[in-house]
Amino acid sequence: QVQLVESGGGLVQAGGSLRLSCAASGRIFSIYEMGWYRQAPGRQRELVATISTGGSTTYADSVKGRFTISRDNAKNTAWLQMNSLKSEDTAVYYCNAYVKPIGTPLSSYWGRGTQVTVSS
To answer: pLDDT tens across 70-86, in order?
Structure first.
């Protein structure tokens, strides 16, 4: 019913930038909080950043000042601008959203992820 599709990952040198996109589609009534998470090999999935419907944001300490989360409520899309990338940012990045679909309860949805690799 609801799909989240990430794009924009890839290979970048340390110090470079990438912009990830997350587009939500389906029978959507409304989208609440959206967020980005990441999972590196052998590690647990961790929060990167979140953004509320009104634009309030939170960030992991490790990305503050380097990453910026944003969204367009009309387009059901969120972005993660990643600057000054470091090798430790290498991970699969996942989009998450709390979505109220039409006719079904509010639920948390995940995208399939996009790989970000930062070479040193």
So the answer is: 999 999 999 999 999 99
